[in-house]
Amino acid sequence: xxxxxxxxxxxxxxxxxxxxxxxxxxxxxxxxxxxxxxxxxxxxxxxxxxxxxxxxxxxxxxxxxxxxxxxxxxxxxxxxxxxxxxxxxxxxxxxxxxxxxxxxxxxxxxxxxxxxxxxxxxxxxxxxxxxxxxxxxxxxxxxxxxxxxxxxxxxxxxxxxxxxxxxxxxxxxxxxxxxxxxxxxxxxxxxxxxxxxxxxxxxxxxxxxxxxxxxxxxxxxxxxxxxxxxxxxxxxxxxxxxxxxxxxxxxxxxxxxxxxxxxxxxxxxxxxxxxxxxxxxxxxxxxxxxxxxxxxxxxxxxxxxxxxxxxxxxxxxxxxxxxxxxxxxxxxxxxxxxxxxxxxxxxxxxxxxxxxxxxxxxxxxxxxxxxxxxxxxxxxxxxxxxxxxxxxxxxxxxxxxxxxxxxxxxxxxxxxxxxxxxxxxxxxxxxxxxxxxxxxxxxxxxxxxxxxxxxxxxxxxxxxxxxxxxxxxxxxxxxxxxxxxxxxxxxxxxxxxxxxxxxxxxxxxxxxxxxxxxxxxxx
Length: 523
Description:
- The protein is α+β, with helices and mostly antiparallel strands and 523 residues long.
- The chain is 28% helix and 21% strand.
- The chain contains 16 helices and 21 strands.
């Protein structure tokens, strides 16, 4: 028996989406939303570029097959209906009829097949579509994905910025899609807004696509995305009304400050699919950090509660594992390593590292790669001194310097922030898989961690569509890595969406502001 997902029509799907939001008034059409993004995108095509800098404008310019709500439920988008075969080896996509690209050309199954092939060949997240062997296109509105094995992350990989449907008639001209001129100028998209102007370092300006396939949407006439890297500048602009919305806000002091402003709505809803987890990573091949007892001792010496209360000002949820606490697969029953200096000292004694006359056992370094990580790295020095570890805090001249050090294993410990990207198959496995120990590649298994059972659990969890079975497998996985501790999770980044109270339907899905803003309106 097939699992079938369908809607009666696109207009009904739109109504269902609107019904998920509590609205004090009817949405109004028109107006310009001015919002902030924090970095200049390399370009605007998420099919060949990861990251939220490209994702926030990219999800307005390009539609995906599915969209996800705040409860991790797939919803129709370009795919009006979809069917997963009983054996999980075939997924049939039925496209909404009448959808067009911004140049008026119809969106067809050929574009879906071309987009999937382009993502497979060029996107850094290879696991998203790795099991897809080919895409059949029996007619213009039907695409059939043929898989080598069941792929539980596939539906989520078809959503938001992970699968942009790009036009074959534009990108199929033989040019490299990563450097194609249509990535930045003259973008021919498939989403609710079309490009007016992309000025690097300044803004991305978008306007409503009048022939958008979802009836009555988008509500806004325009979106002006101002590129504002400075946190204080964004906070001041939000307070003054110069900005009406900003996503991915994570500075604790600014969040606390902005929450006190009655003209602003500050929400932590959303971003669970982005899944940012901050942790202290260990080089498991290091002279001292190769010993699990040393890693456990360090974990017991770190006061997670202090970090989250004093440094994060209560804005960040605790993370006990490498799976984000907002994920349905998160296991909160693992060893938490609550502060216990006596236990930490005992573990180091057991490991054979006695204190010297100066009270020190040995020295380690802790790295950080960008300014936001500095306070957490600096915290480690006085805290680990309590258990006889002399910590040198090592900064890098810039992000590439840090990335080279970590990816070539020239480190003892480092503070890091890594995204789950929705499903563990996409963003978690890469950190723990022994097949992903790749010199020179940042955000791979830079800990050089290897455990055959962990590899086996990830393989099984990534090859079944049974959600309950997956939860069991990931629970065992999390128990093992919490014991062996190749990294010590501390908190989930406190991403918030800050919006003016004049903004209706500010995004709260699991993708946050990296989701279509077609339902956002100005009151």
